[in-house]
């Protein structure tokens, strides 16, 4: 007796009937809301789009999921049978999202920022606070220093640097935020005791404040020293903050950014210095640090806001 072989045709691959898992979200929204109109408000999409998504899902599943009537969409027995599985998918998606967020948070490292001491002021604090509120969990290490910390070596992630030189370092991400001009200022109390110079030719006979320390070689300081005599020097200041304090106490006439003419009514403007003596404020970022999401996001947040602050004030 000959026995013919029975041939079974079976596919070794199971093709998923779901083309888009987001359809589960649409299905659950209609199940819970009872109509495509109510579901559209929950989902934030147009009602016709919700209806089309349900029709497409029914076509893929080869099932009728809802009975349409004047009362809305009533789930069929098949829909009720699918509900636990759909809710399990929803729960798994939420757990996936939460786990990914925890992993991203645990991998987020402290953003290290350096700048001159004067830069750590309420304006920068407001920007940092705003970023934390918008971005979420992020930590900062603030490193005030009048020395140029080596960014390329990875000692810091971001630097705000004032310089009168062009920065073209291929090992860094460099962005010009603003150019700051400088002027000679006096206090109102100094003005009460003496007239003020309003041109270089009138600079004789007044007391001046000069920079010491790292700022002694700054072009604005060299410019001033070339135009006054040693006996006109009333005080030496180590930084711009000390310079402003000395000017406000009436010790003499000193150099400050010209923007103080608009932002501080305790100061009286005397002479604006030549444009080529201005300082450029640079945002410098270590490329390795920039690849971290939190550093990249902070750089994009900081640059326009700090630039606007410099130009406005």
TrEMBL record:
Where does the HTH lysR-type domain start and stop, copy by copy?
Answer: 19-76
**InterPro entries referenced in this protein's UniProt entry, alphabetically:** LysR_HTH_N (IPR000847), LysR_subst-bd (IPR005119), WH-like_DNA-bd_sf (IPR036388), WH_DNA-bd_sf (IPR036390)
Tell me the GO molecular function terms.
Answer: DNA-binding transcription factor activity; transcription cis-regulatory region binding
Where are the membrane-spanning stretches? none
- Asked if the Swiss-Prot or TrEMBL record annotates the protein with the keyword Nucleus, the reply is no
Q: Which UniProt keywords apply?
A: DNA-binding, Transcription, Transcription regulation
- A Pfam family annotated for this chain is LysR_substrate
Give the family from UniProt.
Belongs to the LysR transcriptional regulatory family.
Instruction: Give the protein name, as stated in the record.
Output: DNA-binding transcriptional regulator, LysR family
Species: Yoonia litorea
Q: What is the lineage of its organism?
A: Bacteria, Pseudomonadati, Pseudomonadota, Alphaproteobacteria, Rhodobacterales
